[in-house]
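wait is this the right file?? whatever heres the structure
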């Protein structure tokens, strides 16, 4: 018997991001972190006292991961992956595999259960006919490996509960794929189609819950979709904005769905009808529990 899952909008954090993304729940700090890519900002919101902090970053940032060191993140900045301290602004580049590709920048990324950091790039501006993006993994020896190539917008990285299946999308394909994942080596194989999206819905950031269901923010279609393990739609949540961009699960009881959104690209008329665009939405879930986010240890 399938359990019933219900949702209720709990709170809207008025961040008004141009391109909100990369949302994560920090369990020790009881805080929500997210980024505004275009504004070069990292936000931290403490739920206990409703305090929001904003940190200015040295470059645009596509994604990031927590590390065991307070205030240190591993960040996929537009030009590469670096260790970065949000308090001291110290920066140490770990890998810059696409510095020679004009028009590409790093985008979505996430940490696997072994602590490796994965991040993909996107073709932001086409400068050569053969230009493509890729998905990379940086291991504990700080070697950077290409895992998937010939992409346009690498997105939607996450793993199943067991950590042996990797989910990933190239957003313009309207398809979410899954791969067999070797936890020892980090190799991926056996690419399979997991789910497809409506022609107006571009699959963006994803996460997986404790029931092994995948949540996906669907840019352009005002929805967050929860898929079961077969890739069938188990739940859809309609938002009052058209560009949900990333999702995570968290909160004090690990039963919140937290969604970033974007204003970027909306016309003046669209912004009038979507005054909450760019804000962070928190939904109370009943019947769903989050998985803890692994720390990056590279």
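ok assuming it is, sequence goes like this
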């Amino acid at each position: 018997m399938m359990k019933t899952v219900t949702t209720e909008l709990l709170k809207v954090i008025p961040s008004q991001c141009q391109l909100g993304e990369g949302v994560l729940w920090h369990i020790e700090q009881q805080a929500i972190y997210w980024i505004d890519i275009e504004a070069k900002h990292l936000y931290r919101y403490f739920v206990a006292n409703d305090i929001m902090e904003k940190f200015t970053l040295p470059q645009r940032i596509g994604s990031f991961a927590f590390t065991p060191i307070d205030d240190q993140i591993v960040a996929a900045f537009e030009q590469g992956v670096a260790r970065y301290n949000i308090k001291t602004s110290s920066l140490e580049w770990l890998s810059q595999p696409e510095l020679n590709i004009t028009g590409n920048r790093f985008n979505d990324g996430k940490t696997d259960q072994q602590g490796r950091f994965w991040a993909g790039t996107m073709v932001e501006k086409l400068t050569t006919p053969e230009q493509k993006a890729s998905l990379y993994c940086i291991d504990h020896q700080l070697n950077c490996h290409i895992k998937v190539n010939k992409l346009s917008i690498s997105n939607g990285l996450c793993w199943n509960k067991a950590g042996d299946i990797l989910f990933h999308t190239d957003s313009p394909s309207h398809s979410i794929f899954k791969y067999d994942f070797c936890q020892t080596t980090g190799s991926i194989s056996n690419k399979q189609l997991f789910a497809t999206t409506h022609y107006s819905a571009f699959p963006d950031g994803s996460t997986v819950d404790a029931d092994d269901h995948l949540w996906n923010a669907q840019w352009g279609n005002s929805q967050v979709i929860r898929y079961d393990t077969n890739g069938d739609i188990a739940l859809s949540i309609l938002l009052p904005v058209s560009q949900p961009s990333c999702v995570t699960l968290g909160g004090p009881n690990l039963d919140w769905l937290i969604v970033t959104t974007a204003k970027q690209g909306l016309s003046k008329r669209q912004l009038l009808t979507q005054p909450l665009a760019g804000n962070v939405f928190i939904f109370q879930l009943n019947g769903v529990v989050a998985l803890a986010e692994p720390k990056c240890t590279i």
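Residues 6-286 form a domain with the Neuraminidase fold (CATH 2.120.10.30). so i think its the right one actually
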